[in-house]
Amino acid sequence: MSFLIRVQLPDSPGTLGAVATALGMVGADILSLDVVERGSGVAIDDLVVELPSGRLPDALITAAESVEGVEVDAVRPYAGVLDTHRELELVEEIAGQPAAGLEILVEGVPKIVRAGWSLVVRRQSDGSVKRLASSGAAPEAPIAELPWLPLERATVLDSEESWIPSTWQELGTELAATPLGKPDRALLVGRPGGPMFRAAEVARLAHLAGIVAVVLDG
What would the 3-class secondary structure string for the chain be? Predict the structure, then answer.
């Protein structure tokens, strides 16, 4: 079974290699690696690893944190490998089928930012919320209001606010949103169980939404 493990580690030569060695000692096979964020001597990396049958994911945490200075942010099941070229492929697909652009966007975004689901929402003139598109894994719980719309820039949302459906809160869903061409239309992304969205991930989301908005509205 494959897992996505997010680690914080000192941004120094040899540390990542030591983590890889430690993971290998518990039978984990690293399938892919993506650098999420770097700065102030610290790196945030996502690794997709495969564990042999019968091994518990807790072994990944113990192994990684056996390396000095390493902390595990989260471990969760993950299908597939990380692919940093997916943004380009997604934009090309949307450009080729603009009539289905929003549906293609919400299905593709979770794979790019390693989230559980995404929605495109719009705040109507009367304050009500309209879903314009939902990914297949998106929760069906109705959203009565979106007090953060209109939205001027991409941001991480407070996962404890009153507008958030209780089922989302129960799952510990981390949320991020970015305008999609217009302040009253947004791409909302959920990551049940975490980890929290990093600044670099939010910037990546904003950049993608900006390109897609031009393609759809151009």
Answer: CEEEEEEEEECCCCHHHHHHHHHHHCCCEEEEEEEEEEECCEEEEEEEEECCCCCCCHHHHHHHCCCCCCEEEEEEECCCCCCCCHHHHHHHHHHHCHHHHHHHHHHHHHHHHCCCEEEEEEECCCCCEEEEEECCCCCCCCCCCCCCCCCCCCEEECCCCCCCCHHHHHCCCEEEEEEECEEEEEEEEEECCCCCCCHHHHHHHHHHHHHHHHHHHC
Q: pLDDT tens-digit profile of 86-121? A: 788 899 999 999 999 999 999 999 988 889 999 999
Q: Per-residue pLDDT tens for 46-71? A: 898 999 888 889 999 999 999 999 99
Q: Report CA-CA distances (Å) from 130 to 38, 66, 88, 125, 134.
A: 37, 48, 28, 11, 11
Residue found under tokens 């919320």? 129
Tokens 């770097």 correspond to what residue?
Answer: 38
Cα–Cα distances in angstroms (integers) from residue 150 to residues 181, 184, 202, in the given order: 11, 4, 17
Decide: pTM greater than 0.85. no
